[in-house]
Amino acid sequence: MNFDDDYRRVVLEPARAAGDAPPEDLRVRYALPDPLTPAGVAAAVKQVRQCWRRARGQLKYRRLVDRLEAEHRELAPLFAAAERGDLSGLAERLRGGEERGRRRRTQARARLADAAGTLHLVTPAELEGIARDAGVAAGELAALAREDRIEVRVPDALPAAAPYAAFRNVRASLDVLGHRHLAAFVFGPRLAGPMRVLDGFAAPGVVLDRAAVEEAAAGWARRSRDTSTTHAGTVLAALRAGDPAELVRYDLVERLRERLAQRASERALLRYAMEDLGVEPGDARRLVFAVLRETAPGGGLEGRLRALLDGGEVHAAAELANASQDGGELPEGAAVLAAEARQRVATAVRLREAAAAEDDPDRAWRLLADALRLVRDLPGAAEHQRRLAPHPVPELRADIDGAAVRLSWDASPSTAGEVLYHVVRRLGRPPRNAADGDPLPGPRDDRPPANRPLFYAVVAVRGEAASPPTVTGPVVVRPEPADVRLSAGDGGVTGRWRCPPDAARVQVVRGGRRVPATRDGFTDRVPNGVTYHYRVCAVYLDEAGEEVATPGVRVSVTPSAPPDPVFELSAEPDPDDPGLLLVRFAPPAHGDVELVLTEQPPPWPRSALVPIEEVWRHARRLTATPSPAGLAVRPGAGGWLLAVSVAEGTAAIGAYHRHVNLPAPRRLLAERRGGRVHVGFDWPEGVAEVELTWRVGAGRIATGHMESMLGTALGAGGPERRLVTRAHYDTQGGVNLPVPEDEAVEVAVASSGLLGGSRVTGPAVTARVGSRTVVHYDVARGGPPWKRSLTIRLTAGQPVRVARLDLVVRAGRVMPHQLGDGDTLCSWEQVSVPGELSVELPSLSGPYWLRCFADDDVVELSDPPVRRLQVTR
């Protein structure tokens, strides 16, 4: 068995049985391999689409294949990506198809349960209709029905007409006698168990036959004559005239039909059949199912006529009425339906005859459509309509699009019915019909034979009839050279391309002069700095053996000397904008410098010449802004900042700088607080740690990148370093450094992080706190009572000179806190420390305070204990 046979059996036939619904699972629809591979997917899709085109020639598959092709246009990008190696989109669509298939099966299962209802019974036609509407295979839905214990069966045939002509009188007599049905009349109290009536009458302990009827008649004969015996005689006459079992079944069916006409529910009918009529549960389900599904609840000729009319089989209804009349009168209801059927058939026949005499196929098609709407089964109408060909396409146009041919046409003037278009291609002569040539899937021929005369035809098709072909041609496709690439070097141009297989040679023209070339390329020596324009043409031999050149592919190039690399490069953050780098280098003699950023160290050696496309594959181009200090760039992410010199598609690899994307802290503040220096700053965004470096002494820490800062500092005597986390900084309100009061301190703060397993730091900010000399003083009172004096003793860790010293006195109990808080008792200039100063004790009556203040940038005055500064009398 070949592929087409397998595909029809596995895919097309189940899809057609499901109402021409293509399978949701693309793996099944396209016979995709498992596991998916780009080559396997491309081969499977090609083979399946070829099978579609061959299957479309069969009428039963035409609508299904049209749906498959329409949906394939939406799926084509997925398969194109898969053929290129990207299988992710197709895999995602396969998972989505499985989910949609499950959802459709769930919906079909729910609809089947609704149709089965309380009885858990459905007809095969109902199951197939639900499967077709839901797009599920009927066999799959039947399996789901078995899982849900839903039985699929054809409804039992029920009697449409009474087997006894006077059955209406029998029913009236049973009602008068008070019997619920005929079986109860025959057996009376002996009918104790449930009875079966569909496959022959059966009940526990009784047998319904002629003997049972005669036994019931003997019982009524022993009674005295009255009106009840008269009614019993009516019933017995019916039982003796026909088959008792058939009469009992018809009696039960009619009673269920009456309840159904009174709009009883399915559950109520089942309960009535089992409890009131005493039917065995299995037969009760089948009886109710058959009554609910029968097309003619009224039964008889009228019911059959109504069923045929409702089903659209009007001609069959008219034939049935004619055959049933047989010279007699039809019942009133049947006569009305028969008249309607005959009238519709007569009108449809007139329309069919008018269509047969009509010259315009479109008008004939519409007349037949009207006839079929009236009488769907009108003999010969559908066949005649399918044979009415549409008008041909007015004009077909063919345009060459590269190596393909694009076809376009105006629609057929026919507007009646569904008009489809078939496109064919024929080599050497025009096609005669839709089968004369190679069929094309659409209005584009992507692979036409090259350098050969081609004729195209489009055929309008309606039903089974096709219009005469509309032809265009001959069209000769001569592809241009593909992938034309020119490379400019130092004083030369090199060209490369792919020559079409059918071309005799390739011709290259520059400035009206031919350039010697092979089938694959050329080399042309030209001066640098001038732009040259080339036309690359494919040359073919026509049928007469003459050379024919294509219009050609036009390309331009400017040769130049190779670019010179950048040998030295420096990069520093902008002091006003830490995210901005200022890059400095000496401009090369040849080439334009561009800055790129790589995530890893550049893979090329310095001074290497590589195609610029290769650089773009490994690096990200940065936008550079000229500034007085060089080029300003904003790298954003960290990496290696590389300078490349570019000239005519060639890049010279230059120097690079490792850039760490760690922002610098802002607004660094360092202030002395006694024996400590408090450091505060704005914490940098997105940084978890900073590195704090400080050195006590006269030296300074170098600014700039942290690595160079540490190297300079360590060489000068070794600073102290500390890693500070954000949590520690926030908890302590900053950082406090223990620093002697008489020593200067240099502080540097930089963002820190891990890169490639090693710790790196960003640009640092620095601050300096100068040294201060602490001078201690004491106040002593002495001298005789008549001449009391004050002595101020000054001490320091090293000799120093205070620029100005003021002694302030303030009456009262509040200490002076600054120079203006009291009266200046005495002032001294250029006071040497250590030393003593004397002054006469002030003559104040109440308590007062004494305190010294120093006016000096490098001296900090330290007060004695408070008791030494307060004077009480």
What does this structure look like?
This protein has eight domains: 3-152, no CATH class; 167-294, no CATH class; 315-369, no CATH class; 396-476, Immunoglobulin-like (Sandwich); 482-557, Immunoglobulin-like (Sandwich), CATH 2.60.40; 569-659, no CATH class; 666-769, Immunoglobulin-like (Sandwich), CATH 2.60.40; 773-871, Immunoglobulin-like (Sandwich), CATH 2.60.40. The relative contact order is 0.04. The strands form eleven sheets. Strands 5, 6, 8, 9 and 10 form a five-stranded antiparallel sheet that branches. Strands 13, 14, 16, 17 and 18 form a five-stranded antiparallel sheet that branches. A five-stranded antiparallel sheet has the order 22-27-26-21-23. Helices cover 34% and strands 30% of the residues. β24 (625-627) and β25 (630-633) form a beta hairpin. With 873 residues, it is of the alpha+beta class. α3 (38-55) runs antiparallel to α4 (59-83), α15 (300-310) packs parallel to α17 and α17 runs antiparallel to α18. Residues 702-716 have low confidence and may be disordered.
